[in-house]
Design a protein that fits this description.
Layout lengths: L1 E6 L6 E5 L8 H7 L17 E6 L13 H9 L5 H10 L5 E3 L10 E4 L1
Parallel strand pairs: 1-5
Antiparallel strand pairs: 1-2, 3-4, 3-5
The site of FE2/S2 (inorganic) cluster has 12 residues, from loops.
Length: 116
C-alpha cells in the first residue's frame, strides 16, 4: 500500500491509499477515483494540463514512480519545467523528476506528496 497525499492551496489535503503493484494505475486515475479535482484534458500525455509536483515522503531516494515517459519529457520541456541539461543530469544520476504528468505517472509502492 502506498499513501498518496494530494495537496492544493484551495482545498483540504487529502491522503488516499493506492493499491500498488498493478503498475497500471496512473496518478490521474487515482485522483479521479478519489474525487481530487486535478485538471486534465487529453489523458494521453499530450496537453500538459495535468502537470503536478511530486515529492517522495518515505525518504527512499530515487523512486517517485519511475522514469519520465517520452511524452512527459517533451511536455515538461515545452512548459519550461525542466531544461535539457537538467533532463540529461537526471538520466546520468538516475534522479526522479519533481514534475510529472498525472496521466502518465504510474503509482508505485511509495508514499508521495502530490501538489496540483
Ligand atoms: Fe493531457 Fe495529462 S491530461 S497531459
Amino acid at each position: 500500500m502506498a499513501l498518496v497525499t494530494f495537496s492544493n492551496p484551495e482545498y483540504k489535503d487529502k491522503t488516499v491509499y493506492a493499491v500498488a503493484g498493478s503498475h497500471t494505475q496512473s496518478l490521474l486515475k487515482l485522483a479521479r477515483e478519489n474525487k481530487i479535482p486535478i485538471e486534465f484534458e487529453c489523458e494521453d500525455g499530450d496537453c500538459g494540463t495535468c502537470l503536478v509536483k511530486v515529492t517522495s515522503v518515505d525518504k527512499k531516494p530515487g523512486r517517485m514512480g519511475g522514469p519520465l515517459t517520452e511524452k512527459e519529457k517533451s511536455i515538461l520541456r515545452q512548459h519550461g519545467k525542466i531544461t535539457k541539461e537538467e533532463l540529461e543530469q537526471m538520466i546520468v544520476d538516475d534522479l526522479p523528476s519533481p514534475w510529472r504528468l498525472a496521466c502518465q505517472m504510474i503509482v508505485r509502492d511509495e508514499d508521495i506528496l502530490v501538489e496540483y
